[in-house]
What does this fold into?
Amino acid sequence: MLGPTGSGKSSFIEALAGKDQELRISGGGLESVTQEIQVFKVNNAISCQARKMDWSVYLIDTPGFSDSKMSELQIIRKIYHFQRDKFCSVDQVFYFHRITDKRIPGTVRKIIDVIKAFNIRSISINIITTMWDNIHGAEALQRAENNFIELRDVIWKDEISNRAEIVKFQNTPASAIDIFGSTVIAGCLKDNVFALEDNNLAGPILFHELLDRLDSCRNRKNSLLREKIELFSNPNPELESIVVSSLEEAEEDLAIHFSQLMLYRRSPPGLENILQSARYQHFLDSAVSTQYFTQAIVDTLSDFHLMDHNSVRRSKLKNILEAAKSDFQLAYATLCKFGPPPSGSKPFVPSITISAADHAGGTLEVLQPAVCKDSNAIEQMQVSKALLTETADIKVDEYMGTDVDRLPPPSVSLVTNIANTSPSPPNVSFERGDGHALEMRALVVESGTKRGFPKKIKLAFYKIRRLLRRR
It folds into this structure.
């Protein structure tokens, strides 16, 4: 199940489970409710074919694309690692699309380009349009219908002409069961369909999307850093609390996205020079911004001395200065460990030095004019950015009742270790010629969700330094 954040993937599962079940896995906002891969077993759906083994049916819910915290690259890696670690094959891809947008945004078009780049055969793709139940008024309905036509006749035209399906999900159990039950299973996809190999066309797209996120995070972090510096001279406790919290969040996001960049062993095809430049840019920005922040504190303390400000604020700033010195030393050492700058990149010449005695509580020596306090002081380097051997129809009884049990986190064996802990209602089988028989009984949740982000940004620097040292 793939799609942007808020496109209705989790709502589809909740509707399939029925109104009596409280999965509470759907929500709203810019952050995906689903942060990790979650597996849902449909106990009453068994895919079977004459003279072949019966198979259980699972739905795999994935984190939403365009998430404010998680890059598309990180999501695809989660999917690939899940499939590899669980030894499971994927038969069908459900792509969810919110139909209520005034027009199809560029971010969604990029997501569609990523999915198409994986070269999934058309018959294994279902385009599920959602939010039809949120449409009110003739104008909104017409806009939604126009979006649907554009998806069908333009964006997904080639795939639909080759047997991909596009449907309308009405956010009801009956609609979910109808879509699920009418899905055609045409055999499993390639095991490495989501592997970012050299010949995978999705690789460069995901790489550029990650670089865009890094650039956006850096700009946001540096903007908040300037706001924090301004508060030294114009204190505002309430605003300071917001700025500090937002700055920590921006730094965490930046560290997470950069960790994805460090996982690359080699550049995607055609982008060989960009990878090293992007890594150097990150280390350079860390050194420049920490130096800028350190120098700003020194200047503020100097002004306090001339104006004889109260000792409490001066003492607080001195403590902040000690931490800033440590951050700058670490950032500069990491940049030096990287080695010479790549071709076309600017070298970093520090304007301040901190000796061991200085770090213990002495002074800061200015070697040359400090980094300008203007909004453009923190420089940014722009980084460019199988043949179908068997098919089957799944049919579902619309009047069937369902129930859901939440299970412990998944074990290594995905198929054998998931069981319904509630009493099992009678099975209902449907036979269709030499196709599959489907037994519908219950939907079971298996979840191994992990939440939260690292709080110690410094650890990221140490890990990077160790990685560079090993290399």
